[in-house]
Amino acid sequence: MANQIIDALGFRAAAGTTVTGRVSIADLFPTSRKRCGIYLLRFRDDTFYIGQAVDAVRRFAQHRKNYDTIEGYWFQAVAKQHLNETEQRLIRQAESAGMLLTNKTFVTNVVGETDLDLLVSPAEQDAWLADGRALDDDGVDLGLTVEERFRVKYRQNFLRLRQLPAYGRVKALLQAYITHGIPAFKKTEQSFWALSCLPATNKGTYPRYFALNMNGMEVLVVGTDKATNHGFVFAVVTGSFCADPAEKARFLRSYAYSIEPSIYQAAGADQYRVDFKSMHYLLLALQQEPAFRRSIREMSLRLMRKGGTIYAPYHCFELVQDVLADTGQVTGSL
C-alpha cells in the first residue's frame, strides 16, 4: 500500500535509498544532479515526512541531527519557485491516500503525541469533539494569576473596545465561541489560543474589534470596512458541516454571504472561510447548528494539536476575563 502511494506521489518506490544509520547523503547528489526539490523520509515506525529543500544534502543532515530513526529516502527535483505549491500538493495527496505523515504544516491531522496531550488527554479530546461538553480546567485560570505587567499590556485597547456600541454583541459572540469551540479554554489560554483586542492589522482600511488565533493563524475575526462602514465577520472551520451541497446552500441562505476554501498552512487540506452576514448570524449558527459547532471543534483541535499559538504576545487578558466572567451559565453542551 505504501509503495503504491509513493509511486502515485511521483517518487517511485523502487528508486528509494535505505539510509539507516547514515549521517550524509552527499554521495547521492553528485555535481551533475540537482539538489533543489521535494523529499520523502520513511521512519522506522512506517510513518513518513514530506519536505522541501534548496539543498537536499544539507537538509538531510539537519534531520539526522534530530532523528535517528530515518530508514528510507526519496527525492524529486523541483524548481525553487515551485517548492511551496508542490510540497503542499503532495502532502495533501499523501494524507488523502492514507499515508501517516509526521508533518505539522499543511497536514490535516497530527500523528503521535502532542503538547496539548499534556493538558487535555487524547480521550478527553475525543469526547469533547464528539459532544462538546465542557472539559474540566482543573481550577486553572491564568487571567487571575498572571503578572500584572501582562494584564495591563492591552488594557487601554480593552477599555476603548468596551466603550464601542458593538461591544455587547462582541462579548456575546466571543463567550459562545470560546466556551463551545475551545477545549479546556481556561487551561489552554494564551499557550494554545490567543485573543487580540483592537489589533493594528489593516486598521487603516479594515479595523478589527478582535482576532481569535490558534497555532499560526486566525480562526475568528470581526471588524469594520472603513470605506463602507459595514461590519465583517469570518470564521475558518472544517468543511464537515457543508459537505452536502443542499446543506451548504441552506446554511448560506440562513447565515452567511460565502463559504470558500481557505489556504492557511496550519489548517491542512480541509478548511473553509465562512463570511457571515453579521455577528448576530454567526451567534445564531453557533446556537442552532450542531454540525457547524462540531466543525469549529474539529478546527480547534487540529490547530492546537499542531502546537501552541505564535500570537501569545498579543493576548488580551482583560478582554478574556470580561468575556468569561459569567460563563458558569453557558459552558454546558448546546
Order of helices and strands: HEEEHEHHHHHHEEEEHEEHHH
Mean pLDDT across the residues is: 92
- The level of helicity is 25-40%
Query: Strand content of the residues, in percent?
Result: 15-25%
As laid out across the biggest beta sheet, the strand order is: 5-6-7-8-10-9
Your description of this structure?
By secondary structure, this protein is an alpha+beta fold. It has a six-stranded antiparallel β-sheet with strand order 5-6-7-8-10-9. Strands 1-4-2-3 form a four-stranded antiparallel β-sheet. It contains twelve helices and ten strands. Mean pLDDT is 92; it is low at 329-333. Strand 2 and strand 3 form a beta hairpin. It has helices at residues 2-8, 56-66, 83-96, 122-131, 142-145, 148-151, 155-162, 167-181, 245-255, 279-288, 290-305, 317-323, and strands at residues 17-18, 37-43, 48-53, 70-77, 193-197, 208-214, 217-225, 230-237, 256-261, 272-276. The protein folds into two domains: 2-103, no CATH class; 117-329, no CATH class.
What labels describe this entry?
334 residues; disordered C terminus; 2 domains; six-stranded antiparallel beta sheet; elongated; GIY-YIG_endonuc_sf; alpha+beta; four-stranded antiparallel beta sheet; 12 helices; 35% helix
Give a short summary of the structure.
The chain has twelve helices and ten strands. It has helices at 2-8, 56-66, 83-96, 122-131, 142-145, 148-151, 155-162, 167-181, 245-255, 279-288, 290-305, 317-323; strands spanning 17-18, 37-43, 48-53, 70-77, 193-197, 208-214, 217-225, 230-237, 256-261, 272-276.
Record the SSE blueprint.
Blueprint: H1 2-8, E1 17-18, E2 37-43, E3 48-53, H2 56-66, E4 70-77, H3 83-96, H4 122-131, H5 142-145, H6 148-151, H7 155-162, H8 167-181, E5 193-197, E6 208-214, E7 217-225, E8 230-237, H9 245-255, E9 256-261, E10 272-276, H10 279-288, H11 290-305, H12 317-323
Antiparallel strand pairs: 1-4, 2-3, 2-4, 5-6, 6-7, 7-8, 8-10, 9-10
Helix pairs in contact: 4-11, 8-10
